[in-house]
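Structural prep section.
Before we set up the soaks we want a predicted structure of the protein with zinc ion in place, mainly to decide which crystallisation condition to try first. Input record follows.
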Amino acid sequence: MSQEQYRKALEIKAAELSASLRNREGIHIETASDMQDEVQQETERDLIVTSLDRDSQMLRHVRAALKRLADGSFGVCVDCEEPIGAKRLAAVPWAARCLRCQERADENGDGRLAADRAGGALIAGAGRAFGLGRL
Ligand SMILES: [Zn+2]
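Run finished without errors. Recording the C-alpha cells verbatim:
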C-alpha cells in the first residue's frame, strides 16, 4: 500500500471510531437510567466503559499514525527505528512498533491495551465485570 492509501485507511478508521464512541456515549446514558437489575446494569456499564476505553485508545493510536504520516516517520518503529513490516502495516496501519518491539512492550506491560491486542483486552474487561467491578 502507498502512504496515500494508508492515510485514507487511517482516516476512515478514525471517523468510524469517533462515530461509534459518540453513539455509545448515548447508550451509556440510556442504560444508566434504565430500570434494570442493578448487577446486570453494572455489568453492562462496565462493558461499555471497557469498550469506550479501548476505542478511545485505538483512536489515539490512529491519530498518532496520521501524525507520523504527516511528519514522514510513518512505518518506522518508534522503539528500534527499523522499518515495520509491510504485512504488519497492512493488517495494523496504526502500529507504532515492529512486531518484536510490540511483543517486548506487551511483556513489560507498557503495551497494555496495545491496539492490535484490543480483542484480548475486551475479554479481560468482561472477566473483571463479573468480579468486584471497577470500584
Ligand atoms: Zn522495533
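Observations: Residues 38-71 form the longest helix (34 residues).
Flagged for discussion at group meeting.
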